[in-house]
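User: We ran a pulldown and think these components assemble together. Before we commit to crystallization trials, I'd like a predicted model of the whole complex to look at. Sequences follow.
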Amino acid sequence: MALCDSLPALLCKFPALSDATIRAGRKTIDDGFRGFVRSYGTIIDAVVQPLQVFLNFIERLFVTSPWPIILVAMLVIVYLGSRSVKVTIGTAVAMYFIGLFGLWNDAMVTLAITTVCTIVAVVLGIPIGILMARFDRVQAVVNPTLDVMQTMPSFVYLIPVVMIFGIGKVPGMIAVVIYAVPPMIRLTNLGIRLVDKEVLEAADAFGSSGWQKLKNVQIPLALPTIMAGINQTIMMSLAMVVVASMVGVGGLGKNVLGAINNQFFTVGFLNGFALVAIAIIFDRTSQAFGKRLQKHSEVVHG
Amino acid sequence: MASHAIEIKSLYKIFGPRGADYIDQVKSGLSKTELNAKYGHVLGLQDINISMPAGGVMVVMGLSGSGKSTLIRHINRLIEPTSGEVLYDGVDVCRMNDRDLREFRRHKTAMVFQKFALLPHRTVVENTVYGLEIQGVPAAESEKRARYWIERVGLTGFENHYPNQLSGGMQQRVGLARALTNDAEILLMDEAYSALDPLIRVDMQTVLLDLQKELKKTVVFITHDLDEALRLGDKIAILRDGGVVQQGTGQEIVLHPADDYITAFVKEVNRGRVINVETIMKPLAGNPEGMPVAKGTVLEAAARAMTAAGQSTAHVLDEASRPVGTVSLDTIIAAMVTPTGHGAETQQAA
Ligand SMILES: Nc1ncnc2c1ncn2[C@@H]1O[C@H](COP(=O)(O)OP(=O)(O)OP(=O)(O)O)[C@@H](O)[C@H]1O
Ligand SMILES: [Mg+2]
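Assistant: Here's a predicted model for the assembly, 652 residues in total across the polymer chains.
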């Protein structure tokens, strides 16, 4: 540029570290990390072993059960959750078409991993959210961490996950959980913090202990918000299973990935629509359930 | 169950992050307005000294923002004082550790809230048992006690309704039932009747008075209604800007208002229901004349009895049924319509 010609070099080219320095630093960190993984490999494996077993169990349950049983079970759950005939019929139609186009098994694999990821995210997210609501310090630490987790491109944290756990279902699941747990944590925290101060004061006035307050007042009143968190977690898990197929998660996401690589337009969209259908089923069911929980929480009088 | 008195000693509360820093200045005379203007802190209470009668009803009155809710919240320490003591049974509530405080709140106190503060996700019955549930009373027993009080406050048939299905007055009665079910020695009632219509309100006053006859709880009752205060209160304290302006029995306050503020407060009161015959009687000269009335009878009741009996004079009997004084219908009526005490002359002229 013309302007740069008349200026000292320091102002024109950013004074970056030298390539050699960066290379050395990178190598140290990467080697250190690899060394860490190598020496603790067995421990890491032992830790994730139960997850592997659980995931395999659920997946086998979904894939090997006769389809009518799965379908009926799904319809019952959807109806109990949504109390809506419309949503239930919609589910039946969607599952019919998924089966018709030969995607039943892949859909089951996806359902299985989404279910497991959601359970793990809920089990991790709710206690963290509670701690965050309880202690401002925890919130001060967790909030920026969640910001990083949510904005970091998901492909980036696939790298350490794969380095630690290798290729497979469990690493994929961990990637999905990292991606899907933030809304769970945030909305649990928010829900508890939004609980009416007056009601909490009343609970205090009757001598509630911390646990009694949590169990009788905070969790029940935060439940609609927590449900919204679960809903978002499910949606994000479904979105992420496609990305996770890059590290070996099967199901609909893997088909989509294959379709991208081979430019199979029809296959891509069929699988895509199957994912959309499953997402809508989950969403409508969990939202209607959340709404029902909220029924009495609105203050009308006073 | 013997109730105990509550002693409040030089209690101060300054709202704000650094309240304790300004306590000395407030003690040496910094006013509420100055504190707010200079330091942005709010003076909630200043130098409160009240001894609340054991087994009696202590009424706290004052305009909006005068610190009534703040004061009542110090008794079960929902608010931490900036300095001072709240003694119950010789123990300073403000120095209790967490466990003792929880036990104290569970077993000794029950509270009715100005804004109801019901649990929105629980039905009327489930709200009412809350205190007992926290204490660990078995469900069947607590429900039985809850249903008794739900009936007593007139909410039979609404046991399984949720708070948002009830009117404001009904919600307030749920709050009342919840507190009464707790059967605690101290009953803290923050404008517990303010959302009630006049009929139910009198009804609930009667409930409280009946309860007092049987159980003699120590009640702290906040109200804006002087007639209610006079009907219920064994003792009344009037607050302004976080300080006590006057305290005493209803009669003392009506007859000798301490300043213009109190005079304005008591102006509209029905004096016939407050002043007792012995307050206006003349000492007995000679033999007792007319019909007898007992000491402690209020003017209105005495006048009613005398008119009914067609008598224009009566003599006052003391506790031992000895005649101690005499009143005439004229003096009774004069006392009922004449404001006395502070600023009485100006009022008469008006
Ligand atoms: N948490 C708080 N922080 C700051 N100021 C407060 C707080 N709570 C109360 N105050 C102030 O303390 C003063 C007394 O409030 P309080 O609620 O005790 O009034 P009150 O007598 O109960 O009024 P009302 O009749 O309207 O209920 C008010 O000036 C209020 O602004
Ligand atoms: Mg108040």
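The CA atoms of residues 168 and 195 of chain B lie 6 Å apart. That may be worth checking against your pulldown data before setting up trials.

User: Thanks, that helps.
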